[in-house]
Here is the input.
Amino acid sequence: MEPLFEYGISQEDSRVDARALDLRDGDRLLCISSAGEMPLNLLALFDLKITAVDVLESQNCLTRLKLASVMSLDPDEAASLAGFRKATPEIRRKLFEKARDCLPAADRLFWNGNMAAIELGPINVARFEKYIARFNGLGLMLLGRKHLMKLFEMDTTGDQETYFDRHISTGLLRGIFRLVFHPRIYKTRGISAQGLTHSGERNMAEFFYGKLRDFCCSTLARENYFLQYSFFDEVLFPEALPDYLKAEGMQRIRKNHENLEVRLQSFNEAILQDPGDGFNKLHLSNIGDWMSKEEFAGLLRLISERPASCTKLLFRYIHYNHPIPDELSGRMVPDYELGDKLSKTDRYPFYGLVPVNISLTR
Here is the structure.
């Protein structure tokens, strides 16, 4: 049976991406819905108008459920309903009942028909999260929960690096990664095959293991919800919750929730429908990993042909850093130096970042 979603959590650090896009109050952003963290976190941080699109309506339903939880629950309740915090099935059903009235009718039908996902915490039933969760218990058992918990007691990333190198980076851990990211397993169970369009012959286990140290050490572990959830299937410390699940962020979203529009639509279609003044910032996520070289180049050309209102775009990548087509080199200028700098503070540092400045003149 196919999972309801590809992703339960958007694997992007919205704070880093906001800097890459130089987001400011009043900006008009087009982004991917994915699991909802990007549009919701940015709406919690800025007074923006955001259009979030996805070709999978289930991902849009997940985004709107998270928004509904913000509108109707307190931070801990909203985190528990989503699955960031532990809760019983009974508690999650009651929390959903409180949030249900904030959903459109079609979404209420969707979730009523998928109540098992509500009871488990929706982020826990996505393809990627389910796959990783199978190995969390094994990793905790072999490495020792106590060793991993030590990371969260440290006050500097330097201390985390020293501890990681001495106590966590072992041949045993590398062996776990060889199993988790073995191509015969990962390419069929961990992610849709389309998301590996450009993976080629890359050794996925070595790639992800090489990024693990950055994941554990580049930012304070106590403040990194990606890290905590990845190891322990929950966010351990409330201060690490995504910005949209913090009191200040929730207050801003409740004030500006009408500034978020969620559509069943491709990114290309959204660009085509833009009258020219709809968006001035574009967040492409890592859709290039899911597209052919020709398709991604076509998207960039499409963006360049629209009325000149967009000033910046950002795309992420794991497998392939798409070049800017030669004929657009004067109009679209990637800032690789900024991308490299920001990637060093990314709370989910498995992606490359490419901020692109777009000239308003042709």
